[in-house]
From TrEMBL:
<dbReference type="InterPro" id="IPR029058">
    <property type="entry name" value="AB_hydrolase_fold"/>
</dbReference>
<dbReference type="InterPro" id="IPR010071">
    <property type="entry name" value="AA_adenyl_dom"/>
</dbReference>
<dbReference type="InterPro" id="IPR045851">
    <property type="entry name" value="AMP-bd_C_sf"/>
</dbReference>
<dbReference type="InterPro" id="IPR020806">
    <property type="entry name" value="PKS_PP-bd"/>
</dbReference>
<dbReference type="InterPro" id="IPR025110">
    <property type="entry name" value="AMP-bd_C"/>
</dbReference>
<dbReference type="Pfam" id="PF13193">
    <property type="entry name" value="AMP-binding_C"/>
</dbReference>
<protein>
    <recommendedName>
        <fullName>Carrier domain-containing protein</fullName>
    </recommendedName>
</protein>
<feature type="region of interest" description="Disordered">
    <location>
        <begin position="534"/>
        <end position="560"/>
    </location>
</feature>
<dbReference type="Pfam" id="PF00501">
    <property type="entry name" value="AMP-binding"/>
</dbReference>
<dbReference type="Pfam" id="PF00550">
    <property type="entry name" value="PP-binding"/>
</dbReference>
<feature type="domain" description="Carrier">
    <location>
        <begin position="559"/>
        <end position="634"/>
    </location>
</feature>
<dbReference type="InterPro" id="IPR006162">
    <property type="entry name" value="Ppantetheine_attach_site"/>
</dbReference>
<dbReference type="InterPro" id="IPR009081">
    <property type="entry name" value="PP-bd_ACP"/>
</dbReference>
<dbReference type="InterPro" id="IPR036736">
    <property type="entry name" value="ACP-like_sf"/>
</dbReference>
<dbReference type="InterPro" id="IPR000873">
    <property type="entry name" value="AMP-dep_synth/lig_dom"/>
</dbReference>
<dbReference type="InterPro" id="IPR020845">
    <property type="entry name" value="AMP-binding_CS"/>
</dbReference>
<keyword id="KW-0597">Phosphoprotein</keyword>
Length: 652
């Protein structure tokens, strides 16, 4: 059966995500559910805390959460994130994840487009965000009470017996618990968390019009993806790493693939973990299953990271997987179950998957076959099947499609189409072909959308932000060295009349309106944008003109560097692929980004014996500043030497 033929629906019954968790809470209440640093939640405690928080949200007199409400969630990655998501669903709400690191204008735009009625989250993050709409800080301490435990257990038992009506009645009894001093009439209203067709998340992706677009993903789609998956092994004995941003759809796999199968979620408590942080976390908590973006996987593979020694299953996705890194990892760690996953947010994280083996050779690894109720169809522009082996657009169907784009009916109708033969399909814009064995090969895009370090980027969104500036007349964005670990987002700017704004200043101003992954790694000033014969921007010609470091300025001769500065510069040079010869060289200006920073901090640790946190790294982005950090760290590590202290000092 080729992927152009609809696959049979998955075996998982349509259900909402809370039911999956509560079932395990009833059957194995003492089993580990979430690990957050030194804090651990069993399934029983996770159920009780989330039920209590749901009741608190529904009975809050200032901002009551009602079924159908769209509620934004602003938290740092933690066990509390998991409790809060589950509580919102138990209250009947839709969760709209927000990223604390994103600029406020983007967060406000996402909340407006999602029609958010309330934002809940960590008190400090809410204060820092200073959002204009209603906000409600989550309780600092878990709501666990005492007299409610029997009602919670009764509800869990009903859920385990697949009695949704009884479970809802028990939910009402639980919410009536006097320990929470709720409004009795309101608390008696049953919580409806059983509708699998209700949206679970609104996840935002880059938008070509200059605003991100919200994808409404239903409970049934996530539940079918993660329940007893046949594309990767997840059992009740596993521990799954949660290290992705909550706004990245991979987090749905990291959290709910664990909880749907009775496994444990291991929360990476470092908000910007280094490669060493990830390895230590995996070792400390015995993680067995992890997801890595393709770019991160390539970095870990290049270093033969010991992280793979602990893991049994690794899912990789976001960009085309290169065969050489995959082969190297499987050679060094032959027991590893390595899965190449593919899928847009509109098809719920992964729509196809391929188990990678040594037989995949030297060509790019295929994206595999449809999984978990998805279907795949290789069609031409008119929706007609193309012959096997020929390239066509991938249209995805089946039971795991999103509802569409929130507040964008025209775009929803354009991308989610009713096919006369195959039913409702999502047009991915990705070009694929069918191999003789039925697997799909990926061949890029049929539009301008790009992937850089696993992030889906519409160049139009970045171009819109640039054109909005009064000192920019026109702009175009492309990718330099696409499909490689060195891929960079590059902007070409036609300046408006008057003084030309330096590239570094433009990048700094973009950080106020765009998240970090949308800020170009390099900006080059051009007199005009090249055009194709049809009058469109010639992006291929722009890619050929991608700037190298220092294109936008004439640098004076470099001053001599100290030995430590030279050591840092050599590490930078290897990571950036070009010589760094100045102490005042800026990592970001030279094309550095967060993934390369992981490599640099890892090399500094191995070669100089110092640990630099990523936050410190980006706070000191020049060679000289980082050399000073290295010197400070070395002195702190050998404080007994006190080289600046007189011999007879009283200092010890």
């Amino acid at each position: 059966m080729t992927p152009t033929t609809p696959q049979p629906a998955g075996t998982a019954p349509a259900t909402a995500l809370p039911a999956l968790v509560l079932r395990h809470a009833a059957r194995t209440p003492d089993a580990l559910a979430v690990v957050d640093g030194d804090t651990a939640l069993t399934y029983g405690r996770l159920a009780r805390e989330s039920r209590a928080l749901a009741a608190h949200l529904r009975a809050n007199h200032a901002y009551r959460v009602a079924p159908g409400d769209r509620v934004a969630l602003l938290t740092s990655r933690s066990a509390r994130t998991v409790v809060a998501q589950l509580a919102l669903w138990l209250a009947g709400a839709v969760c709209v994840p927000l990223d604390p690191a994103q600029p406020r204008p983007r967060t406000e735009a996402m909340s407006a487009d999602a029609e958010v009625s309330l934002t809940v989250g960590d008190a400090k993050l809410l204060d820092a965000a200073a959002l204009t709409g209603p906000v409600l800080a989550l309780p600092e301490e878990p709501l666990t009470g005492g007299g409610h435990l029997a009602a919670a257990d009764e509800a869990d038992t009903a859920c385990a017996a697949d009695e949704p009506d009884t479970a809802n009645e028990a939910d009402a009894a639980y919410a009536r618990d006097e320990a929470y001093a709720m409004d009795a009439a309101y608390a008696r209203e049953p919580v409806d968390a059983s509708d699998p067709d209700r949206a679970a998340f609104i996840m935002f992706t880059s938008g070509s019009t200059g605003r991100p677009k919200g994808v409404a993903v239903p409970h049934r789609a996530v539940a079918e993806l993660v329940t007893a998956p046949d594309y990767v092994t997840v059992t009740s004995r596993d521990r799954v790493l949660f290290h992705s941003p909550m706004t990245f759809d991979a987090s749905t796999f990291e959290v709910w693939a664990a909880l749907a199968n009775g496994a444990a979620v291991v929360v990476c408590t470092e908000q910007r973990p280094s490669l060493e942080d990830l390895a230590r976390h995996v070792e400390r908590h015995g993680v067995t299953v992890a997801f890595f973006t393709t770019a991160l996987f390539h970095q870990l593979a290049a270093r033969r990271s010991r992280i793979f020694a602990q893991l049994r299953s690794v899912v990789v996705g976001g960009e085309a997987m290169a065969a050489a890194p995959a082969r190297a990892v499987l050679t060094a760690f032959p027991w590893l179950e390595l899965v190449n996953g593919y899928g847009p947010t509109e098809a719920t994280t992964f729509a196809t998957a391929h188990r990678v083996t040594a037989r995949d050779g030297d060509a790019p690894v295929p994206i595999g076959r449809p999984i978990a109720g998805a279907t795949a169809h290789v069609l031409d522009a008119g929706g007609r099947p193309v012959p096997d082996g020929e390239r066509g657009e991938l249209w995805i169907g089946g039971s795991r499609l999103a509802h569409g784009y929130t507040g964008l009916p025209d775009l929803t109708a354009e991308r989610f189409v009713d096919h006369p033969a195959a039913g409702r399909l999502y047009r991915t814009g990705d070009l694929v072909s069918v191999r003789p064995d039925g697997a799909l090969d990926y061949h890029g895009r049929n539009d301008d959308q790009v992937k850089v370090r696993g992030f889906r980027i519409e160049p139009g969104e970045v171009e819109h932000a640039l054109r909005a500036r009064p000192d920019v007349a026109d702009a175009a964005v492309t990718v330099d060295r696409p499909g490689t670990p060195e891929a960079r987002l590059v902007a070409f700017v036609v300046p408006a009349p008057g003084p030309v704004t330096p590239a570094a200043a433009l990048r700094e101003r973009l950080t106020a309106v765009l998240p970090a992954h949308l800020v170009p790694d390099a900006i080059s000033t051009v007199e005009r944008l090249p055009l194709t014969p049809s009058g469109k921007v010639d992006r291929r010609a722009l890619t050929d003109r991608a700037p190298t470091a220092g294109d936008d300025r004439a640098d004076p001769p470099p001053a001599a560097m100290t030995p430590l500065e030279q050591a840092v510069a050599e590490v930078w040079s290897r990571a950036l692929g070009s010589e760094v010869a100045r102490a005042d060289a800026d990592f970001l200006a030279l094309g550095g980004h967060s993934l390369l920073a992981l490599a640099v901090t890892d090399d500094l640790r191995e070669e100089l014996g110092v640990e630099l946190a990523l936050a410190d790294f980006f706070a000191a982005p020049t060679v000289a500043a980082q050399a000073a950090l290295v010197e400070h760290a070395l002195l702190a590590a050998h404080s007994d030497l006190h080289p600046e202290t007189p011999e007879h000092s009283d200092v010890h």
